[in-house]
Amino acid sequence: MATTFQWKAFSGTTSGISAASMSAGVNLLGSEIDNSSNLDRFAKAELRWTCSATASSAGTTVELYFIYALDGSNYEDGAAGVDPNRTPDWIFRNSGTTAAQRRTSPKLDIDPFKFKPLIKSELSQKAVSVYLTLQTGNDQSV
Does 3 score more than 80 pLDDT? Predict the structure, then answer.
C-alpha cells in the first residue's frame, strides 16, 4: 500500500527579528529555535521590509541562513558581525521600490538541531520595519 502525504498546518515560531532596522551589508541574528525536541523537517519564511528614504537597487537581495548548533551549544559561524561562510538557505530578491515589500520562501529543509535564523542584507540602502516570520512543521502521512 502506498503512503500518501497531506499538507499539515505549520506552527508559528518566534524569529526574534521584529521591527528591526538593517543597514546595507548588516546581519541580523534571530532567537534560538530548538528543533532538537520538536523535530520538524521543514520551515517556511516570510520577510517584510521597507527602504523608506531611498529605494535599494532592484535585484539586490536579503539572504536567509539557519545557523546550527550541532552539539546543542556551539553555533556555526554567523552572527551580527560575522558573515556565514556558506551558501544561503534562501535568498529574497528586492524589487527596487520604497514601498513595503513582502517575500516568502518555499518549504525549506531544516535539521533536527537548535538553530538561529540570520538575515544578511545585500541591499544598497537601509531597510526599516524588518520582520522575519518563521513557521515550522512536517508533512502528514496517512
Answer: no
